[in-house]
Amino acid sequence: MRTPIVAGNWKMHKTVGEGVALASELVKASAEFDGCKVVLCPPFTAVAAVANAVKGSPIEVGGQDVHWEAKGAYTGEVSCEMLLDVGCSWVIIGHSERRAMFGETDDTVNFKVKAALASGLRPIVCVGESLQQREQGLTFDVVVSQVKAAFGGVPEDQAVQMVVAYEPIWAIGTGRASSGADAQEVCARIRSTLASLYGAITAETIRIQYGGSVKPGNMAEFAGQPDIDGALVGGASLNAQDFCGIIKATLDAVKQRQQ
Predict the structure, then answer these.
(1) pTM higher than 0.90, yes or no?
(2) 156-203 per-position pLDDT tens digit
(3) Residue boundaries of the structural domains of the chain
(4) Helix, strand, coil proportions of the chain in percent (round to 5)?
(5) Is 95 assigned a catalytic role?
(6) Which residue among 67, 95, 104, 221 is the active-site one?
(7) DSSP 3-state assignment of 122?
(8) Residue 185 a catalytic site member
(9) pLDDT at res. 184
(10) Which residue, of 114, 148, 155, 249, has the fewest CB within 10 Å?
């Protein structure tokens, strides 16, 4: 069985002090996270402090983005080495907000994936369709294309280090979550796409998250699906009680699946 992974994307929230306070609350509850990989992705200014706050606990830390070059005249960017230096072991790549607002493309996603893997960072690669694309019946076309682009040129032994996060853009921050069945249908297509690239055995080892208005009350519906291995959580990750509730719902659903 794949170990579920729940990652909190704090986006542009939390000062250093606020981030440390939230991380410290989660550390106190972390004994209950056994069986689930938990990752916190604070804003860059808080990464080092949050990494220090969770040190010694099972909680890991990631960046929300990264540049593919090792160094250079790239004002405002951070490199893989910089993320590793402040305690990151993960990085989110290709989030829909980066694609929609900041010009992220399938090509730059692939550049970043390769750079992250080469450095030892583990990528959480985001894919997902807009409402217009969904209404036009293009969901599978869009998602399959994004998956193939992200994994382009990535060897099998590195591909298994990656996580795919399916985030329907129309559900992010809107309160309008996908149904478990709809999310499962897309995640199953993601897995079959990975199987076409690497074979069924490797595809079965790669974890696929759901993201998009995930809450403690609806997480069981997603985590109970056979091809969904956790969540990339936005707003609900900013509250310790809600985030812990999502982790608990994930673990409970996975245990039920195993029975």
Answers:
(1) yes
(2) 999 999 999 999 988 877 777 689 999 999 999 999 999 999 999 999
(3) 5-239
(4) 50, 15, 35
(5) yes
(6) 95
(7) strand
(8) no
(9) 97
(10) 155
